[in-house]
Design goal:
- The protein is α+β, with helices and mostly antiparallel strands and about 120 residues long.
- It has one domain.
- Helices cover about 25% and strands about 20% of the residues.
- It has two helices and four strands, in the order E-E-H-H-E-E.
- The longest helix is centred in the middle third of the chain and has 20 residues, at about 40-60.
- About 20% of the residues are buried.
- The mean pLDDT is about 85.
């Protein structure tokens, strides 16, 4: 069951950190220059997570999973029904700069998220 509400969730992705948190390590900070927004908080988090994981893959040149794994995103979907974490059910509208977007925009189904970059 999804929550029906008219709230918007936003993620500041201007300068994300993809490892060694919570203290910032300059090696893992980069200028993504993005804002992620949507009405499905789980979908917003899933897209932010996808961006982090793709950047980690780019740094290492191979998959580099988070440890411990972020089970809260799929649990919010599968256990609590708060939204969708399945990428094939999330539509992304990107505005602005699309170089190194780090996300696949193949899905045309709802909910729609907005990724805005200058």
């Amino acid at each position: 069951m999804r929550l029906d509400c008219c709230r918007t969730t936003g993620v500041d992705a201007l300068r994300p950190l993809c490892d060694k948190g919570p203290q910032p390590d300059p090696r893992y900070l980069w200028d993504y220059n993005g804002l992620i927004a949507g009405v499905d908080p789980v979908a917003v988090e899933a897209i932010a997570l996808q961006i982090i994981l793709e950047k980690r893959r780019q740094i290492r040149g191979e998959p580099w999973p988070l440890s411990p794994p972020p089970l809260c995103v799929t649990a919010a979907d599968d256990v609590y029904g708060l939204g969708t974490s399945r990428r094939n059910e999330i539509k992304v509208n990107a505005f602005g700069w699309t170089d190194d977007l780090l996300i696949d925009r193949a899905s045309d189904s709802a909910p729609t998220l907005t990724v805005a970059r200058p």
